Protein: Transcriptional regulator, HxlR family
Amino acid sequence: MKKWSIDEGKCPISYTLAAVGGRWKWLILYKLFQNKVLRYGEIKRNMPSITHKMLSQQLKELEATKLINRKEYYQIPPKVEYSLTEKGQTLIPILMLMSEWGANNKADECAKNNDDKLNC
Structure:
């Protein structure tokens, strides 16, 4: 699957999708918003279905777009903490609207389908 390019279409929507597109980035941002600072293992425990490779890749991409901070402590055992940057914090209102939309529409979908597969 081809990834969004920052330069694709040279429009703000393309930039946003390139920065935070994909299945996991919004959830990682939300977990960091909830907890302020998390270590890699804590993020992984909060997102059990993400693979280590994917989590590592997503964290690197979020760091490259300056949405999260990565603070490394040189000690044994090594310690790395992640937190939102000021730029990352600006996405929180959008994230909260997405959460509200999901809550409202998931309830509609559950009622319509009466389906346990949606974890209603």
